[in-house]
Amino acid sequence: MSTIIAESVGGAAAILTTFCWVPQAIRTIRLRDTRAISLPAQLAFGTGLALWLTYGLMIASWPLIAANAVSLALVSVIVATKLRYG
Fold it and tell me: What is d(CA 19, CA 53) in angstroms, rounded to the nearest whole number?
């Protein structure tokens, strides 16, 4: 398989899976309502993102690096809001 095709698929996946968190982060910031958000699940997910980001850096894969860096930032905002407003 062509590297360009593989990177394109990875880039498309990165965009979709990263930006699906934007509405949740915006809603959490605006409403400050985090009752329905599980803190343990978000912490586990954030840890997984950090590991995927580390892996992406190790293999120098821009889709993994970009997607996981942005997703980790968004999930961190959600976790911070959960910790602050309960």
Answer: 16
